[in-house]
Amino acid sequence: MYTEGYMDLGRTFAIRLMQHLVVPTFVLDAERRVLIWNRACERLTGVAATELLGTRHHWQAFYDTPRYCLADTLVLGRTDHLAQLYDSHTLPSDHTLGLSAENWCVMPRAGRRLYLAIDAGPIYSEDGKLVAVVETLRDMTETKLAQMALHSLANRDGLTGLANRRAFDTAIEADCRAATQDGTPLALLLADVDHFKAFNDTYGHQKGDDCLRTVAHTLESQIFRANDLAARYGGEEFAILLPGVDLEGALQVAERLRGALSDQAVPHAGAPGAGVVTMSIGLAAGIPAPDMTPKDLIDIADRALYEAKNSGRNRVVGVSLTPASI
Known about the structure:
Beta-Lactamase; 2 domains; 41% helix
């Protein structure tokens, strides 16, 4: 009797302790019903415990469509779902250990989007049966946003907002390797603003910076696929990587880019002809040879750009990737 009373007292104390923890915490039973939804969890999510206790609706506090929370994957033994559900996660070394994960949560009731670090740990009975899973949450939004800002600073050109040379070098290495391994096409466009020195001499360097921003915005507005990359290659020169695009497709994109900049009609009194800012584009596209390197690809596109500028500027010259083009 004394032992049973002492255990009941311990359970009551544990529940009260969990309710008053400053860490947002909830507990699911072996049927995935909410046993505990502490006050810190109410404050984080904007959802009262009275709405969730005894239900399986806890996902509604974090997401706007039904999906598993981390505790659910432990109860169900569905750790194979983790990669689909979370930006990052750990895998338990055995079934008795917990899980850790991180993810953006839309927080519908709270009306804010938060990046949460999540831990879930199982509780077993003496005979080894799962009786509950405890999930704790930490708001890591500020840390995540700071990390994203640092990543952006490291990979974005400060003037134009496009990818910088460092990001371009990383991307072309990966794209070139994938294209040579898979035998798929790859296109590289090198674009150079025509008579840019004359533009700076005529209007000054501040207007020159504005001109480069306009060019960058024009390029970015015409690049529609998520895996394409527009980068500031250096000075007034820009690079565009188009994975999976052959020569015909690359020529179409290049002409669209060239025309879009001309249509901006940025005045350029120092340029002959139309009197507006234009650009020349050299491109290399096709299925790379197995031994082709990023430097080879850049050299081919650069020679095409040289030809475009020497043959009158404001034009596109394309080269097909063949062994003879290296």
